[in-house]
# Entry
Amino acid sequence: MSEPRRNPMAMARARHALIQAGLDSTVPLEAASSVTNEVWLTEHHVIRVNRRPNQRLRREAILGPSLPAEIGYPMVVTYGGQMGADFLVVKRVPGQPLAHCWPTISQELRRSAVSQLAGKLKRLHQTHGPANLPAIDTPQMLRGDTLSPVMSLLVALDQARSLPHVDQGLMDDIERMVYALTPAIEPFDSDYLVHGDLTFENVLWDGSQLTALLDFEWSRTAPADVDLDVFLRMCCLPQFHVGDKWFDRTKPEDYKDVP
# Structure
């Protein structure tokens, strides 16, 4: 991941977004750590620029205003841009990413943070998705728009069989496991939202309170258990779910009690 502070074009994209939002484009910009987007902070706003050709931020601009107040999602100021450089400008919420604070906070505060996160997730998982939310190809292969929720998994396994150095016996075992577990995820349809990218990098912490859940680019309607996919992987390998600056200080042993 390139650091946006070293990229004049990234800063130019951020200032263009401020102009489009009708805001002062000459204010100081601070580059923020991010795994997927170019993110810049001003005193009062956050600018996110998505450089991938999928307009994920458009979905978030639609979804954000419909989220319940308990989630703490910041007010959307404007969305715009073009394919490969769409942007979202939101009001800045107090706090730092929980992932950055986690290594140094006490066990008592960690328990409080996890309890507060559970409360916000419960509220999110009771929230209906807006009817006009565009579809998106999610990182998880599980999908609700096929005849069977595991069909895409089985298709992917067939594709994997044709790859070099793949153990066919292992593929057979996985396929049997998928068939055996199919009843556990059917029916797959749900009218309620999941976050879709639930990591501590996307949770704001002010020292005692969780102030917001952020980054709903991958949010969609799905069973609540889908949020465990990214979350449990984050707990196992947290260093791969933070920006480069925080990689060395993010340790799996600090997350072993979180689940």
Q: What stands out?
A: The beta strands are 30-32, 38-41, 45-50, 76-82, 85-91, 96-97, 193-194, 203-205, 210-213, 220-221. The first helix runs from residue 8 to 20. The radius of gyration is 20 Å.
